[in-house]
Amino acid sequence: MTAALPSGVEVIDDPDRLAAIEGEWWDLFARAPAATVFQSPAFLIPWWPAFAPGPLATIAVRRAGRLVALAPSWIERDGPLGRRLLPLGISLADHLDVLVDPAAGPEAVEALVAAAARLDWDRWDLEDLDGAAAAPRLPVPAGCEDLSEETVTCPVLSLEAGFPACLPSRKRRQVRRAREKAEARGGVLVERCEEDPDRFFAELERLHRMRWSGRGEEGVLADPRAARFHLEALHRLAAAGMARSLVVRIGGTVAAAYHGMAHGGAALAYMGGFDPGFSEESPGSIAMAEAIALAAAEGRTEYRFLRGAEDYKYRWGGTDRFSRRRSFRRGSGR
Fold first, then answer.
1. Is the Cβ–Cβ distance between 233 and 174 less than 8 Å?
2. Which residue from 7, 63, 187, 241 has the least number of CB within 10 angstroms?
3. For residue 333, is pLDDT > 50?
4. pLDDT tens, 71-130?
């Protein structure tokens, strides 16, 4: 930075300081209409100590002592694209954004961008922005080129018709047959496990590894850092009422685990695992159907399958919704 920051603007470079703003972060999160679970402190505060990939550089703007804008960020110093200002949660969060209180006025957003412009970067990459994100409306920092592009699809299922009408008829038949087969094998029971994150996560980790080992791969939870992060985040999400943790028992055996989240009008399908020994009973499909039914019963308007164009998402009735990347790039003469 070239000069002192204006009053009310802070660049947080200390992890302890990041953790210390959790209360006011939650308050801002509740006032930010575009916020998803992935911008919550429940997800991003544990992400930092688990990975800490570069210098922390989170920008906070306050007005009259109240947090009104936040860009949870860090700086990648030695990447192939040069020095980049990047969002916390990148690679594990499917939707990223800045948080802005719409009542704060344009001055707060301008202060956020001005503080970011003082940092040492060649590119400020705002990744994985969904259609309601605040970042596309940020003003362009002085001297920067502004580039925007679609990146990846995150299919979405509308729940407006209710459950099970929201599902394609073929998928409804498949779920019904899966439950019939599970009943014939000893009965099927779906349990909610938000009150015991440790027990649920142990099952999720076991079944996630079983699923991926069948493909000759390890899966994300094979990384101890990722496993630590997900367990800590799960505890925080459950405490905030945003976790949706389901297990499917067939004949008394846990055959599938579903890790989802919910906030506002959306339910999110994040991670799962199943025992290949129960593949004929499709316990993963039973779990997803239960999660969709729960979302509809809670009054959610959409079910987000998140990043990727896997075929199964469209078989459930998902339709494409593309995320965007917005990049501010400085000239080579800087």
1. no
2. 7
3. no
4. 999 999 988 999 999 999 999 999 999 999 999 989 999 999 999 999 999 999 999 999
Output the six-digit token pair for 154: 């995150």
Where does residue 126 rank: exposed (0-12), middle (13-18), buried (19+ CB within 10 A)?
Answer: buried
Cα of 186 vs its chain's centroid, Å: 36
Q: Residue 126: which residues within 8 A CB-CB, separation 6 or more? A: 87, 96, 97, 98, 135, 138, 325, 326, 327
pLDDT-based confidence at residue 3 (cuts at 50, 70, 90): low
Residue 177 tokens, joined: 């047959």
| Distance separating alpha carbons of residues 316 and 303, to the nearest angstrom | 10
Q: From the centroid of its chain, how far is CA 112?
A: 23
Residue carrying structure tokens 């999720």 = 204
What is the pLDDT at residue 5? Answer: 83
Q: What is the pTM of this model?
A: 0.94
Distance, in Å, from the CA atom of 296 to the CA atom of 162, rounded to the nearest integer, reads 6
| Tokens representing residue 13 in the block | 């470079």
Cα 71 from Cα 208, distance rounded (Å)? 32
Among 158, 161, 124, which residue's Cα sits nearest to residue 140? Answer: 124
Cα(270)–Cα(253) distance, rounded to whole angstroms?
23
**Tokens 């008394």, residue located:** 252
Three-state SS for 136?
Answer: helix
Phi and psi at residue 296, in whole multiples of 5°? -65, -40
Which pairing describes strands 58-63 and 66-71: parallel, antiparallel, or unpaired? antiparallel
Cβ-count burial 203-237 (b if 16+ within 10 Å, e if not): bbbebbbebbeeeeeebebeeeebbebbbbbbbbb
